[in-house]
Write a structure and sequence with these properties.
mainly alpha; 4 helices; elongated
Length: about 130
């Protein structure tokens, strides 16, 4: 069941990443599609095994649970990303670059804490 859970989470995260990247085209500087996929994959996997099974099963995996968790997380990740900003002057560009560098540090810390928490949730579910 472990490998099927991973496979379902991977396929759903891959499809949703492609769909959301194509439809919304919103990626902040420093956060790309790969990071979106990693967060979505781990969150879909963790949510799929922790949330109560919903709907029909395929190969004894409640695929609807994985899909709904993946959609929920994808919409949340898309909603928190602001639209790209274009600075008008050199002064605005410098201020924007400085603010972006400070935000990148906070995002980096949040990313690793989130990844560690999701991996811990996955491990605890299988132990």
């Amino acid at each position: 069941m472990f490998w099927l859970d991973v496979l379902f989470a991977f396929v759903i995260a891959l499809l949703l990443t492609g769909l959301f990247a194509r439809l919304f085209r919103r990626t902040p500087a420093g956060i790309g599609v790969l990071i979106f996929f990693v967060i979505l994959f781990l969150a879909t996997w963790a949510g799929g095994i922790w949330v109560a099974p919903l709907g029909p099963t395929l190969f004894d995996v409640p695929w609807l649970t994985f899909l709904l968790v993946g959609l929920f997380i994808a919409f949340i990740l898309t909603a928190i990303v602001p639209p790209p900003r274009r600075p008008r002057t050199a002064r605005e560009a410098a201020a924007y670059a400085e603010a972006e560098a400070e935000a990148a540090i906070a995002i980096d810390i949040f990313f690793w804490v989130l990844i560690a928490g999701l991996i811990a949730a996955i491990l605890v579910a299988y132990l």
